[in-house]
Amino acid sequence: MRRILIWMLAAMGLFCFTGFLYAEEPAAGKGAEMVTFEKIKMNQVMFPHHLHQKALENNCNACHDMFPKKPGVIRELITQEKLKHQQVMNGKCIACHKANVAAGRKTGPVKCTECHARPQ
Questions:
Q1: Per-residue pLDDT tens for 36-93?
Q2: For a tag on the chain, would you pick the N or C end, based on fewer CB atoms within 10 A?
Q3: What is the C-alpha to C-alpha distance for residues 9 and 17, in angstroms, rounded to an integer?
């Protein structure tokens, strides 16, 4: 039992240390329902992709003007140094959420630690 626990902790640590982006299986051209941005510098983020599609009325270019619609593309572009993760998070996510706050609309988090929440 202890050996299994140690193996599981080591595997989890490896995934957290290396960091990567993965997504659930795409649903009929809509992309993944939930995308997980693994730890880069901060804790992972669970991104509700379909919720954002609905909120943006399926305007994919609201986000995908920075990167193509392809699983793992953000990690790929960051690795190639063609994109910085803060370009996406600050330039798109937080900017959009702050604009919604200013317009009095319901929105998501506006602070880094609200998405990059520490595990309980």
A1: 877 666 788 888 999 999 999 999 999 899 889 888 888 888 889 998 878 888 888 9
A2: C
A3: 12
Determine contact, residues 61/69, Cβ cutoff 8 Å.
no
**pTM of whole model > 0.70?**
no
d(CA 39, CA 42): 6
CATH code, domain with 60: 3.90.10.10
**Residue linked to tokens 């599981």:** 8
Burial class for 107, CB neighbours closer than 10 Å (0-12, 13-18, 19+) = middle
In a domain, 1, yes or no: no
63 is a domain residue? yes
Q: How many domains does the chain have?
A: 1
Domain coverage including residue 27: 18-115
Q: Which amino acid is at 94?
A: I
